[in-house]
Specification:
- The structure is a single chain.
- With about 150 residues, the protein is α+β, with helices and mostly antiparallel strands.
- About 20% of the residues lie in helices and about 30% in strands.
- It has a five-stranded mixed beta sheet with strand order 5-6-10-7-8, with no helix packed on it. A three-stranded antiparallel beta sheet has the order 3-4-9. A two-stranded antiparallel ribbon has the order 1-2.
- Strand 7 and strand 8 form a beta hairpin.
- About 20% of the residues are buried.
Length: about 150
C-alpha cells in the first residue's frame, strides 16, 4: 500500500487496503471463522485443509501497520520534525475527506477537497483562513484548534 502511494497510485493503494481490512471482507467472515472486525496474522491458502480460515487473530501487528499505512500514506498526514505534512494519495473517485489530528499539543482540523478527482498532489493549503506557501503545516504551540483546508 505504501509503495503504491509513493508512486502516486491511490486507486491501487486503496484496493490493496480493502483486500485485508475487516470491514471490507465481512461478507466472507464465515469462511475466516474469526471475529469479523479483527485483523488476523494470516489466512490459510488454497492448499490448506481449511482454505480461507484466518489464524491468530488479536496476536498480530497488522492492525497497527494498517493504521500507519492508511493515516500516514493514503490520507497522507505525516508528523515531521518541522511540522505536520499532509500529502494524501487517495482513490481518484474520492471527493475528499476530513480528519482531526492532535500534534504537539495543537489540534489540526483538516479538510481535503478533491473536486478534480486526482489521486496525488495538493494545489493549495489554507490555514485559519490564510493561504500558505509551504508544504508542511507549522507547529503553532498555542494548544488551539486550527482549521486547515486543502485543495487537490
Amino acid at each position: 500500500m505504501i509503495a503504491e502511494t509513493v508512486l502516486g497510485r491511490g486507486d491501487r493503494a486503496f484496493d490493496l487496503y480493502k483486500k485485508i481490512a475487516p470491514a471490507y471482507v465481512e461478507e466472507i467472515s464465515e469462511i475466516h471463522r474469526t471475529e469479523p472486525y479483527v485483523y488476523s496474522q494470516m489466512v490459510a491458502g488454497r492448499d490448506a485443509v481449511r482454505y480461507g480460515e484466518a489464524k491468530n487473530s488479536w496476536l498480530t501487528g497488522t492492525a497497527a501497520w494498517n493504521y500507519f499505512a492508511i493515516t500516514q500514506w493514503i490520507l497522507g498526514v505525516i508528523p515531521e520534525y518541522d511540522g505536520l505534512s499532509v500529502n494524501p494519495c487517495i482513490p481518484s473517485a474520492m471527493d475528499g475527506f476530513k480528519v482531526k489530528r492532535v500534534y504537539r499539543g495543537d489540534t489540526y482540523s483538516i479538510e481535503v477537497k478533491n473536486p478534480q478527482h486526482v489521486s496525488k498532489g495538493v494545489k493549495k493549503i489554507i490555514v485559519d483562513g490564510k493561504l500558505i506557501n509551504q508544504k508542511i503545516l507549522p507547529v503553532f504551540g498555542d494548544g488551539a484548534t486550527h482549521k486547515i483546508e486543502m485543495g487537490k
